[in-house]
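User: My collaborator and I are trying to settle a disagreement about how two of our proteins should look. Neither of us wants to argue from intuition anymore, so we agreed to look at predicted structures for both before our next call. Could you fold the first one, then the second, and keep them clearly separated?

Assistant: That sounds like a sensible way to settle it. I'll keep them separate. The first protein:
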Amino acid sequence: MPLLPGAVTASEVMALREEGYSVLKFFPAEQAGGAAYLKALSSPLAGIQFCPTGGISTKNAMDYLSLPNVVCVGGSWVAPKEMVAAGDWSGITELAAAAAGLKG
């Protein structure tokens, strides 16, 4: 079963690395220091990849995707609750296609 455990602190990352994990969720990304924090972790925790979520948007996604230790980002902008409630599947498809086109 696929699992993406979450970590915010360097200690949590090191503990999960000891358990054999090398790809982790970083949440809440923006509130926990954002792209600058992940950049700071890239050298001392080389080999660990992150999927930041929490406060990610089209405005800051590239800040994360440009980092060597970020494999992907997640964000609710791809399927806003208003569009889901309205059943705007074509609008969500457009947003998802735009998000899939982001490259770091």
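The second protein, kept apart from the first:
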Amino acid sequence: MSKQAIRFLADESCDFAVVSALRTAGHDVKAIVEVCPGISDDEVIRIGIQEGRVLLTEDKDFGWLVFAGTDGGASVIFIRFPMRARSTLPETISEFVKQAGNKLIGSFAVVEPGRMRLTRIPKSDA
């Protein structure tokens, strides 16, 4: 079985159970809370782009930052899970990553209970 490991950057808002599940699945996950807690959202995006990592976040501000505030190159999974559905969160994200694979690169994904959307992030002409 050949699978592609994806590099992730987990924002401080990301449930650490997701970090653990993706690490168990063989992915390289850098967690902001472990390496540089308290940095700005802009800095988180910069690290993600610079290191070629897909950002994992539950912070809706990253949608605006990615579509209006960067020059492209970002990749994001925005997690929207209410408290009542949190028990399935790590498994849902792991399965989504397995299905989407390299399509996550250069995309903005929204993952909710029972619903997943993947949108390509337009490249800036600047």
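Some points you might bring to the call about the second protein. The chain has five helices and six strands. The CA atoms of residues 79 and 111 lie 5 Å apart.
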